[in-house]
Amino acid sequence: MTKETMKAVGLYKYLPIENPESLIDVEVDKPSPTGRDLLVRVQAVSVNPVDYKVRSPKNREESVPKVLGWDVAGVVEQVGPESTLFRPGDEVYYAGSIIRPGGNSEFHLVDERIVGVKPSTLDFAQAAALPLTSITAWESLYDRLGVSLNKADNAGKTLLIIGAAGGVGSIAIQLAKNSGLTVIGTASRPESVSWAKALGADHIINHFEAFVPQLKAAGFDQVDYVLCLNSTGKHWANMAEAIAPQGKICSIVETEELLNLTLLKNKSVTFAWELMFTRSTYQTPDMIEQHKLLNEVARLVDAGVIRTTTNETLRPINAENLRKAHAMLETERTVGKVVLEGF
C-alpha cells in the first residue's frame, strides 16, 4: 500500500536565509495520530525568532527534511485513540513542541494537551499569530512573575516590558493591562512606539538609554516587575537598577554572557527564565495548562479584550514566502507578527 504524502517546507542543510536551499519545498509522509495526538489540517502558520534560531547556519545535515514552524491554526482531521478534548472538524490553534516536527506542513501532529479552541471571531491567519506569543506572555506574567489574575491585587503595581512592540510584548501589554497593571514598554522607533501605545502601554521609554532616569521622568522610581524580551545581557544592569526591592524579573532571551546575579541580592530580587516549550519537552504533569490558557486567551479575544497581532500576511505557505518571513524577522525590526496562509 502506497503511503500518503503531503506538502511541507523543510531543510536538509543549515544555511543563511539568502541561500535558496535554506528552506525548500518538500513532500513528506502524512502522519497518523496515536495516543493523545490530533492530526490537524494546517490552514495558517506564523513565524517566530525560534524558527530562524533553529535554522541558523551550523555544520550539520539532515537525512530527512527537518520541518520548522511553531504557530499553527487549523482544523482537526483525525484524533488519536486516547484523545478526549477535541473531535474531527474542530477549529484549533497551538504552538506545538520543539522536539517534534514543526507545523510548516499540510498536516501536523500535536498533543491535544497543548492545543486550544481557535477564537471564533478570528480567521485562521489572525489566529495563527497568537499561540506561541500568548503562551509565552501568559506563562511569563502569571507563572514566572507571579502576577495575580485578580485585578484588584495589582492596583498601583508596575510592569516594565523590554521590547514591547514584538510578538510576545504585543500580547504581554494586553494581558497586563487586563490584569490592572501599569505598563511601561520600551521601544525606539516611531512605528514601534505607536504600536505599543495602541495596544495599551501607558508609558514608553527607549531601551538604548539608561532606564531609571527615563522612569523617573515618567513618575516612577522603580518597577515591581520586569519582562525582558530583548538581549538579557545588554539590559541586565539596567534591569537590576530599575527593579523594586523584592521585585521579580523574567527573561525569555538566552544569553552567552555571564549574568552577575549579585546585582539582585541586596534587593532580594527573583529572576526566572521562561520557555514555553518546557512543558511539552519534559511532558510535565501540568502540560494541560497550555490547553486551558489558550482557551482563556480565545475567550479574551472573542470578548474584545485582546486583539490579534498579525501585521503582515503572505500567501501561500511555501519555501519562498517562509524565506521572506525569516529574513524579515532576522532584521529584529518587525512589529507584530508575520503570518503565512494556505497551501
Give the SSE string: EEEHEEEEEHHEHEHEHEHEEHHEHE
- Tell me the span between the first and last alpha carbons: 26 Å
By CATH, the topology of the largest domain is Quinone Oxidoreductase, Chain A, domain 1
Tell me how many strands there are.
Answer: 16
Q: Main beta sheet, described?
A: 7 strands, mixed
CATH superfamily of the largest domain: Medium-chain alcohol dehydrogenases, catalytic domain
* Distinct helical segment count: 10
Overall shape: it is: globular
CATH architectural group of the largest domain: Alpha-Beta Complex
How many domains would you count in the coordinates? 2
Structural class: alpha/beta
Q: What is the mean predicted local confidence, pLDDT?
A: 96
What is the CATH C-level name of the largest domain? Alpha Beta
Give the percentage of residues in beta strands.
25-35%
Which percent bin holds the helix content? 25-40%
